[in-house]
């Protein structure tokens, strides 16, 4: 029994490729070729050279002394926040841009919500000199103006999605429409372990460099590649998938995924997908998603834009369903407090998404001998406005 994807693109009963017929040739081309391409020696060479010289890998694995003292255990921080552009997302976009070149694609499209994946895509396209079109909801463009300007500065065209709620799902629809109309010359870069097979597996494999490095770094620091716990926040699930990947089939390592409870799991303003979700199809794969009794997707809420997603990648749906992964949910307020706690304890201002992973330390009883790895998915610069805005509400001193 393996927790990896099976040959049909499923994780247990989750995954697959539920796409309209018009999109089938695009997805099928990718499915037939992605493994051959990404495991090719020249691909691996180019990918790892760029990860090293451009992204700044390997990212450090930092022993957090003061945090460890506070929780009476050994806590290591995997510093994805130190990647170029400030988060793990670039690992995936660099990999997919090399893949796109191997597939002879000249044009890149992507969708983005908060703009983080759009920025990581625009970055990779500028690096390779490829045309870049990012679809973004009109409402999100107004909310995330800085990221819109970052993308434009790097030469990307940001196209507003003006239908529906004018947010992420509408941008996704526009991107899919574009791909249907441009099947030959265009590659669609999806930003998390979501979407139709092979995307969840492709993105997980590109992000798996995170756990590959953790294994080597822990071996060097503590004499064993295996921690007792790996903890990561989950929106779609790509940073968690990368941090879990090489431990999926190793039962000695506990996998802890942390979702956003928003204002509370039962408040009606939440993004706790595994807790509230039921099986359904979202963005081309069968997974757990928040939906009404008649199958309408429920609008999620989280203070962190990156966790504000009504679904979860099929790998994680299966980790939850099988019990292999333990899932926690953390409220806006708990995440906010954890962000200030970790800033003051270690001098690291985390992204609001990442703060959810830190907040869960209060919910688990660790042994003094445990080795705990937390994946620091991103840095908090982008969230400073939110930290300023809610400080008086959430932080008392
Ligand atoms: C986008 C983002 C996330 C959530 O995406 P995953 O695919 O679940 O990793 C988490 N942290 C940061 C910093 C992000 O930018």
Any guess at the CATH architecture of the largest domain? 3-Layer(aba) Sandwich
Query: What's the total number of strands?
Result: 14
Distance between the termini: 50 Å
CATH class of the largest domain: Alpha Beta
Structural class: alpha/beta
Largest sheet: 6 strands, mixed
Strand order of the largest sheet: 3-4-14-9-10-13
Enumerate how many helices there are, as a single number.
16
Number of domains: 2
Structure write-up:
The chain is of the alpha/beta class. The chain has two domains: 19-50 and 89-202, Rossmann fold, CATH 3.40.50; 56-86 and 209-394, Rossmann fold. Helices cover 43% and strands 17% of the residues. Strands 3-4-14-9-10-13 form a six-stranded mixed sheet, with helices on both faces. The chain has a four-stranded parallel sheet with strand order 7-6-5-8, sandwiched between helices. Helix 4 (89-102) packs across helix 5 (116-128), helix 4 packs across helix 9 (199-207) and helix 14 crosses helix 15. The mean pLDDT is 96. The structure holds pyridoxal-5'-phosphate (PLP). Pyridoxal-5'-phosphate is lined by residues 87, 89, 116, 192, 233-239, 306-307, 351, 353-354, 377-378.
Which helices and strands, and how do they pair?
Blueprint: E1 10-11, E2 14-15, H1 24-38, H2 41-55, E3 61-63, H3 65-71, E4 74-78, H4 89-102, E5 107-112, H5 116-128, E6 131-137, H6 138-143, H7 145-153, E7 157-161, H8 168-181, E8 186-188, H9 199-207, H10 209-222, E9 229-233, H11 238-244, E10 254-262, H12 273-276, E11 278-282, E12 285-289, H13 314-322, E13 325-331, H14 332-346, H15 352-359, E14 371-375, H16 384-394
Helix pairs in contact: 2-4, 4-5, 4-9, 5-7, 9-11, 10-11, 14-15
